[in-house]
Amino acid sequence: MPRGPRLDSPGALHHVMARGPDRERIFRDPRDRDDLVRRLATLTTAGARSVYAWALLPNHFHLLVRTGARPLARTMWSLLTGYAEAFNRRRRRTGHLFQNRCKSVVVEEEPYFLELVRYLHLNPLRTGVVPDVRGLDRYRYSGHAPLLGTASYRWQDIGTALGRFGGNPRRARAKYQAFVVEGAGQGRRPELMGGGWSGALGSGRSSENSGVVGKATRPMNEYLKAPTSSEDSSGRSRGRRRVELWHAARGPIWRRCPDVFRRQPG
């Protein structure tokens, strides 16, 4: 099947997801998780991207990233192929570790940025990796603990998310934590996944949410301060306007990562 066109201009915001085939575990112990975290750190500090939110689960992971000068496809190829080769050596196994191609959904920054930060960071709670919100605060394999100050990863951008809650770091962390707790009972949010795994890994399109994350389900005004990004005459940020113009010219698409993942039967 030919690949669709790609959207990967510098500054584009993406929700990236990758998982093991048939729900196979891609992280079996802390050595595996620490390995992927080290690789994320290397690529991020090299200027490949900015990471705002992330979560490692037993059989998949999520990233909320903004691309830099290096194309996202190259970054993900380096991350996943390097990790898969090291995983196979540690486990004395052969074969593919990741299912199909990773999925990357272009995100409209407002008002979906904080919704996705919260949704990604609640994944360990939803999937039972941690028992409760207190356990989530101490879980060191997601971006939630660094935002609270209970863990530290220098490569994670925490200022952008916390800045949405005000300029005082202590108060911003308290507001962020209240925001996360308030969303803990929401359950799965398919509209924040851009149509689900099947749309990205099958035909390359979903029925209505192709390429751009779905509409947020609740207003965010009580959490957000006024936007600070530079805007054009229509009020859109320059980055968002570039995305809109691209979609108007080419139509919505699923951006696909390189063919280093196993194709599903059928």
Description:
- There is one protein chain.
- With 266 residues, the protein is an alpha+beta fold.
- It has a single domain (13-256), classed as Transposase IS200-like (Alpha-Beta Plaits, 2-Layer Sandwich), CATH 3.30.70.1290.
- It is 38% helix and 11% strand.
- The protein has a five-stranded antiparallel β-sheet, sandwiched between helices.
- Strand 2 (49-56) and strand 3 (60-67) form a beta hairpin.
- The protein is globular and about 50 Å long.
- The chain starts with 12 loop residues before the first strand and ends in a 10-residue tail after the last strand.
Topology record:
Layout: E1 13-19, H1 30-45, E2 49-56, E3 60-67, H2 72-91, E4 103-106, H3 109-121, H4 123-126, H5 133-138, H6 144-148, H7 159-163, H8 169-182, H9 196-201, H10 238-250, E5 255-256
Antiparallel strand pairs: 1-3, 1-4, 2-3, 4-5
Helix pairs in contact: 1-2
- Give the neighbour order of strands across the main sheet: 2-3-1-4-5
Q: Name the structural class.
A: alpha+beta
What oligomeric assembly is this protein in? single chain
The CATH topology is Alpha-Beta Plaits
**Number of helical runs?**
10
Radius of gyration: 18 Å
| Name of the CATH architecture | 2-Layer Sandwich
Let me know the CATH homologous superfamily.
Answer: Transposase IS200-like
Q: Sheet bearing the most strands, described?
A: 5 strands, antiparallel
Mean pLDDT across residues: 76
- Pick out the low-confidence regions: 1-6, 195-212, 214-234, 239-266
Return the CATH class.
Answer: Alpha Beta
Beta fraction of the residues?
5-15%
Write down how many β-strands occur, each being a DSSP E stretch of 2 or more residues: 5
Shape, per Cα inertia axes: globular
What's the end-to-end separation, in Å?
12 Å
Order of helices and strands: EHEEHEHHHHHHHHE
